[in-house]
Amino acid sequence: MDNAKKTKLNKEEPAVGARRRFLGQSALLGLAGAGLLTGCKEDAPVTKAASASASGHAARLTSEVEPGQLDDYYSLSSGGHSGEMRIFGIPSGRTIKRIPVFNIDPMTGWGITNESKAIIGTNPDGSLKYTTGDTHHVHGSYKDGTYDGKYLWVNDKMHSRIARIRMDTMECDKITQLPNVMGYHGTFPDKRDPVDPNINYTTRVFCGGEFHMPLPNDGHDLDDPSKWGVLFSCVDAESMEVRWQVRIDGNCDLVATSYDGKYACSNQYNTENAADQAGMMSAERDACVFFDIARIEKMIKDGKFTTIGKSKVPVVDGRKAANQDPKTALTCYVPVGKNPHGVNASPDGKYMVCSGKLSPTATVIEVALVEKWFNGELKTERDAVVAEPEIGLGPLHTGFDGKGNAFTTLFLDSQIVKWNVDAAIKQFKGDKNAKVILDKVDVHYQPGHGYASMGETKEADGKYYNSGNKFSKDRFLPVGPLHVETEQLIDITGDKMRVISDHTAYPEPHDAIIVRRDVVKTRQIYNMDDFPNAVKPENAGITRNGNKVHVRMMSVAPAYSIPVIKVKKGDEVTITLTNHDKVEDLTHGCAIPMYNINFIVNPQETKSVTFKADKPGAYWIYCTHFCHALHLEMRSRFLVEA
């Protein structure tokens, strides 16, 4: 995004909110009335970057975002074993939001309210099925090859779940558990429909299973891992139902999709299908497996599938032994460097890049040649490889600048390497003068995931690259044995890379995407009518049905609509609370001491909780989220009779 666009966005976006603008304009009018202003006009603030651009000097990128100014990008990141997602501003590195997904969050009430429990999933007694999660990869929905700002998806490796986040509210609205999968790791949406050429937006999300397990995992074949298997899954982007699964060789790591919608792929380690580390290292190469989506869905449509255990999801066989004829094959296993970690699509749609991890190489696969293999026009799968440059020790994840250059994290070298894809292809063809490696920069230390601004789209802009480093010793103030991790932001606009900032990250985030701020269009208040259980004056109050008590309550700063709630010991109490305030950022909380209840309701939002009143006594229901000058006085009495 150029500086002119940045200035325009600062003018159009509600950076300081309607209330601040109203107060500012009122002050100006007051000065004008006192004769101190001869004229006034509401102009966008001129930033340093905009001034430099206007004067004809190219401004170097900086991580500084002045007070009152907005970041240019969102970094939408996983939260690792916190089970959450996180949003950072780029380039500032400021934490803007933590999105609870697979974890319990007492601030928002996620995992506490009835609505969130229904999304996470519960046992028959109403308790959460899981209280832990392990998020790794975040990716957004596409339209015409770039982000459309509608959905995000994030995986839970631990319990093999996929969650969807609505980008208009930045809240999770669906969670699906994948059947017969353990260690669901990589995930990626399609960029257009693989069957209908008229649909140029995301319709499916692909999920790579990582760990072998008995199929089904019902206590049989425990002593014979040779019978275990791995499944690659397809989830419907809208319904979030599992469409189909493919049984494959190897363990899936990351997932990528082609820009034409035809293929999904996953880099694989352990193509040996071994159950121990020594066995996983025995082969010379591993693979990147490509899936022909149209063929898979045609086979399922024709009824040529099986199911596993109690699951009704169609399963087809994508193992190499069952797919020897390229013209009918569902899968194509392209040999790549040993124990690869990461597969990424170049913004021009031509290539997939896999890094070797245990090989100092990056393997460049031409998508058009993979298609030729599926058509029976290529001798071997390996012939789809068009380059394999040596780029450094421990290569992992690759981002792109949209100018033909790739940026790969080098875990063992603690560096980011900048290399040119076309030069690598020339070198592979025998050009000894091709200059592949363009630059390297040190990072601190052991970078894992790395990603470029808009780098997963056809709009890769070549401005920022973020290196997510796993070790930060000596970088920050010591805080005991557990260190934070380091996110280092790198300016990639010039010939030489330049580290411009360090940001801390609570362990352990993994992958993220950097999205231009104009792509994200969020709501500032909810629509009360979107909530079927919304409490309004006509249905507010307390009702009893046997030992079940329903408290329907409204909040308007600084008060709840019901000052006293009286129940009996043993009652099952449901509190439904609707925030009737319409002011942006005016959120109310609801906490009940000794009852483990704490949640918030945003403007015009409704949430509910259900619990047993098993502790007699008097308790104050109080607002936890500062909302008014009389915030401390915003309380109701909750009385439980013995």
TrEMBL record:
Its EC number is 1.7.2.4. It is an enzyme of class 1 (oxidoreductase). This is Nitrous-oxide reductase. Nitrous-oxide reductase is part of a bacterial respiratory system which is activated under anaerobic conditions in the presence of nitrate or nitrous oxide. Residues 510-642 form the Cytochrome oxidase subunit II copper A binding domain. SUPFAM superfamilies: Cupredoxins, Nitrous oxide reductase, N-terminal domain. It is found in: Periplasm. In the C-terminal section; belongs to the cytochrome c oxidase subunit 2 family. Belongs to the NosZ family. It catalyses: N2 + 2 Fe(III)-[cytochrome c] + H2O = nitrous oxide + 2 Fe(II)-[cytochrome c] + 2 H(+). GO terms for molecular function: calcium ion binding; copper ion binding; cytochrome-c oxidase activity; nitrous-oxide reductase activity. Gene3D superfamilies: Cupredoxins - blue copper proteins, YVTN repeat-like/Quinoprotein amine dehydrogenase. It comes from Noviherbaspirillum autotrophicum. GO terms for cellular component: membrane; periplasmic space. PANTHER family: CYTOCHROME C OXIDASE SUBUNIT II, NITROUS-OXIDE REDUCTASE. Its cofactor is Ca(2+); Cu cation. The keyword Cell inner membrane does not apply. Keywords: Calcium, Copper, Metal-binding, Oxidoreductase, Periplasm, Signal. InterPro entries: CcO_II-like_C, Cupredoxin, EfeO_Cupredoxin, N2O_reductase_N, NO_Rdtase, Nos_propeller, NOS_propeller_2, NosZ/Cyto_c_oxidase_sub2. Pfam families: Cupredoxin_1, nos_propeller, nos_propeller_2. The keyword Methyltransferase does not apply. Homodimer. Pathway: Nitrogen metabolism; nitrate reduction (denitrification); dinitrogen from nitrate: step 4/4. One of its GO terms (biological process) is denitrification pathway.
